[in-house]
Amino acid sequence: MTARRSAPTVLPCSIDPQSWDIDEGSYRAGRDAQRECFQCPRLAACRAEVAKMIAAGDPPQSTIWAGVAYRHDGTAVATDRELRVYYSRVEGQRAIERGSAA
């Protein structure tokens, strides 16, 4: 009897990586990305990977990894309020860079 191989799981973060980039995406996209992480079959593996990265002094930056948002300096965003503030600051900075801020 031949073992059947299941089709590889397509991970949402590989389909739409911009939603996991907290310097590029929006607050709503970031929250959706976090929810996707918590439902992902690879969550435990991602948590193990990020723990190794942090232990090595190389934390994720400007991304959502294993459901946790990390600022550009690699520190974790602890609360939803902090995440909103971070996205507001980033969106303001993007507006300035585009020249559309007054």
Spell out the blueprint of helices and strands.
Blueprint: H1 12-15, H2 27-39, H3 43-55, E1 63-65, E2 68-70, H4 80-98
Antiparallel strand pairs: 1-2
Protein architecture, described:
The protein has one domain (18-98). It is globular, with a radius of gyration of 16 Å. The chain is built from four helices and two strands, in the order H-H-H-E-E-H. The N and C termini lie far apart (69 Å). It has 102 residues and is mostly helical. The longest helix has 19 residues, at 80-98. The mean pLDDT is 88. It has a two-stranded antiparallel sheet.
**E-strand count:** 2
How confident overall, as mean pLDDT?
A: 88
Calculate the terminal CA-CA distance, rounded to whole Å.
69 Å
Helix content: 40-55%
The helix/strand class is mainly alpha
Stretches where pLDDT is under 50 for at least 5 consecutive residues are none
Shape: globular
Number of domains: 1
SS field, number of helical segments: 4
Major sheet: arrangement of strands: 1-2
H and E order? HHHEEH
The value of Rg in angstroms is 16 Å
InterPro entries: 4FE4S_WBL
Domain 4Fe-4S Wbl-type: 12-75
Keywords: Plasmid
Protein name: 4Fe-4S Wbl-type domain-containing protein
